[in-house]
Amino acid sequence: MRxxxxxxxxxxxxPSVSGTVGLLxxxxxxxxxxTLWSNRLRSLLTMLGLIIGIGSVxxxxxxxxxxxxxxxxxxxxxxxxxxxxxxxxxxxxxxxPITLEDAQVLTQLPSVARVxxxxxxxxxxxxxxxxxxxxxxxxxxGLDQMLSLVFAQGRYFTPAxxxxxxxxxxxxxxxxxxxxxxxxALGKTILVNNQSMRVVGVTKAGFFGSWVDxxxxxxxxxxxxxxxxxxxxxxxxxxxxxxxxxxxxDVNVDALTFEAKNLMRQRHRVTD
Length: 272
Hints:
With about 270 residues, this protein is of the alpha+beta class. The protein has eight helices and eleven strands. The chain has helices spanning about 15-40, 40-75, 100-105, 145, 160-165, 175-180, 220-230, 255-270; strands at about 80-85, 110-125, 130-140, 150-155, 170, 190, 195-205, 220, 235, 235-240, 240-245.
């Protein structure tokens, strides 16, 4: 019997949403596990394919990044602000060669920070019973800074050695190993084209194009090279093989190239 007119409320408990979702996840995981187990060979092969495929992609990317880093490290010392001028080629053959005077005039260009004349020759290098044919480069002061040379042993030439035309030589790491069989090369006296030279440095191999062979070549002060090792006399003065020009920090390398081309064309009467 009802004693008033208030409605009777029927209260029921709804299932928990989070509990339902949790049950669904559990069922899905169990179903997936049963499916994988029932097709375990196919699942194993699929997993192996995915692992090999992903591993191959990672390996290729790693090799690519490693190669980029290696090339960047090799060019790091070279810099992007260095311009080269070489003597030779069909358009300049038979004309006035590049000389030390050219290098001195190039220092007056407003875009130039540093000039490095270079002279090259072949050389036979002998120590005890070991000998080798090598590229010989006559190099100027400051080249170690322009190219950021790295030494396995020793150092670059001092200003006094340039001034005194000292009989000193820097050899590449590969040449040092061939001559001395991993012994310490510093201080040893070797024959460079039958001239006695004392080793003051050993360079680590690097990539500087054909400018300097830092692995199997040798360097001597340019003053020494011109006096005893490299024939440089010409009707126009001391002949060199080429010049390296370093642009100033705030100068575009194209501007330096334009200035250097115009100057050298005028000096050497190249109009074609």
